[in-house]
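Recap from last week: sequence in, structure out.
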Amino acid sequence: MDRRSRLRSLARRASGGLVSVTDAVAAWGGSPHTAAVRLAGLARSGWLARVQRGLYYLPALDAGPSIAAEDPWILANALYGPCYIGGWTAAEHWELTEQIFRSTFVVTAANIRRRTRTSLGSEFRLVKVARARIEGVGSVWRGTARVRVSSAERTLVDGLRDPSWLGGMRHLTDTLKAYRDSGRGSAHKLEAELTKHANGAAWKRAGFLAERIWPDAEGLVESALAHRSSGVIKLDPAVRSRGKMSRRWGLWVNVSVAQGEP
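Predicted C-alpha cells:
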C-alpha cells in the first residue's frame, strides 16, 4: 500500500479528522506497534499533526497547508474525556447567548495541568470536576461522533453553582432571561435539575434571580427558600466588593440585577 492509499484508508476511519493507533490498525492491519511507527513517520513528513501520544489529526487530503481542528468539540472529547461541553459553549449551542466566546468550555474528570490550553488552533477553557458530575449528561451528534453537552437546564445550574462558567453573574442573568423567553424555558424543569445537581449556593442564586426576573416561577422560589444553605456568600464570587446584604437569601448582592421583565 503506497502512502496516498494508506492516508485514504486512514481518513475513512477519522472522526473530525482525528485518528488513533486503534484506527490505524483497523485501516491498515498489522500490530499496534507497527501502526504507531507509521503514524509517527507520517507526522514527521507533515501529513499528520500529532495531538498527543497515540492521537493524530489528519486534515482533508485536498486541504491547504493550514492545520486546524475540524470540530473543537470532537477534539476536546478525545483530549479530555470523560468530559462534557458546558458553560458558555453549551449556552451558545442552546442559543441562550449572543455573546461570542473564543474558547470552548470543557468540564472534565481527567487530570489537567492548566485551565487553558490551545491545540490544533482551538482554545479550550478547562475545569476539573468529580467523575460523578460527568455521568448522566446527554450527548449530541457532531458529524460521526457523539459528544456530551450539558442541557440548557444543566448549563444554568452549573452557572448558578459557579457564575464564571457563564462569564460572570451579569451574563448568567442574561442567559436565564434568554432561557425564560426561549419558548423551551420551564421553571419546573430548572427546579428539577437544581434538585439533582445544585448546592446551597446555587439554590440561593436561583431563588434570588427568579424573584427578580421570573415572576411566574413561584414554585422555584419556594424550593430555593427550602434548600438554601446557612452562611452568607457573594452573588458573584469574582467581584471583590461585598455589596448589600440580602438576609432573605444569605447573599452579598455585589452586582446589580434588574427586577421584573426586561
